[in-house]
């Protein structure tokens, strides 16, 4: 089974969010099941070492304004195909945004090029290798099915949605610059409220659509979650499936993690306290005797972190503390930095991102807060479960699929792993925090939550089999 993944980022090479973690983990999980996966990825400056170590396997004289080539290399256990197009990808800073924080002016060309080359590879442009199925990830790869249609190819495609909020919508004039036929502008292809949507093209033309949790798959068909594409999702509901994400169990392993001061297991859970002390020291927090909550997140309204600002006084009144690591909305960055100054010793905030620190936070916090208004799957709650950090989550998307609420029935039957709340409001979040604090006060119950969470199957094994079944079904048909 030969598979081509087309994506804009891949951990550990280049990462802005959870997409990268998935693309870095799924190929290895599929390889363990006998599949051969190659990942087509732009050759950003961060991949210079891999580019230099690779072998050129394809050359294009011109690709949306300049020459390009594809370089094959195996790195970190992943077979990469690097699209080396310096005029499109060799730039400093964020891979999507310029120095002012705006989208790069030519993002439509940059990621149309990625899709175009993906389609070329799918139709045999590489000597001796062609995929049985192409899996395009998010809007940056969503034109692959369209370019395959233009080429007259019947190579089957899967369009995977990691977050439907990002749709690749551009002015209608964009279409004329992308080497696409007139039919791409049809309402049943890429036309979207008078503009052109990369993601809609992929959703309308792919043979199958997948997303990253079963609950999110259902939510996408509703106006509240479909972000204007709910009608498209309802039309294509028969080819839509939800496969929950997993995590890399080697990278996120409290028993061997080199980024934390004290490793531990569910049998030596008391050792977690060493990490808790280190986390408090890093954030300048006192030991109040209450639970230490953490947040590791982009600071956006999607993540519900404006609501957390509202309930911070109540959290502190409960004797709890908060350590926050994140960046995003400038107003929220300033608000959390100010909260840390006003509540020194009880609230700590580090604006930015630090991979090693994120590991310490998962290992040291008592609980993690994830009050997202919508969450396709989420990975931080899976990391938390693995590290005995109790998730407090909104009941939405993958959060609902991966955390078992410790209500009275769940406590009686010994199956709870965290705290869920709904509706997604500040009041409900405040009540969930109070419930978590009450559970923390019952050390036997809290320890049970931690140990059950650490035993949850959060790796890729089951999900890899589900993906493989999806791909094999397309190949056989």
Question: Topology of this structure?
Answer:
Layout: E1 2-6, H1 18-31, E2 36-42, H2 48-53, E3 55-60, E4 68-75, E5 78-84, H3 86-89, H4 107-122, E6 133-137, H5 144-150, E7 157-161, E8 169-170, E9 191-192, E10 195-197, H6 198-205, E11 208-211, H7 214-219, H8 230-235, E12 240-242, H9 272-283, E13 292-299, H10 305-317, E14 321-328, H11 330-342, E15 347-351, H12 355-364, E16 367-370, H13 380-386, E17 390-394, H14 397-402, H15 408-413, E18 419-421, H16 426-440, H17 443-454, H18 461-476
Helix pairs in contact: 4-5, 9-12, 10-16
Helix content: 25-40%
Biggest beta sheet summary: 9 strands, mixed
User: What do we call the CATH topology of the largest domain?
Assistant: Rossmann fold
> What is the total tally of β strands?
18
The shape, in one word, is: globular
CATH class of the largest domain: Alpha Beta
Mean of pLDDT: 96
Strand share of the residues? 15-25%
CATH architectural grouping of the largest domain: 3-Layer(aba) Sandwich
Count of domain modules: 2
Structural class: alpha/beta
Low-confidence parts: none
How far is it from the N-terminal to the C-terminal residue, by CA? Answer: 14 Å
Rg, rounded, reads 23 Å
Number of DSSP helical runs: 18
**CATH superfamily of the largest domain, please?**
Glycogen Phosphorylase B
Strand order of the main beta sheet, please? 3-4-5-2-1-6-7-11-12
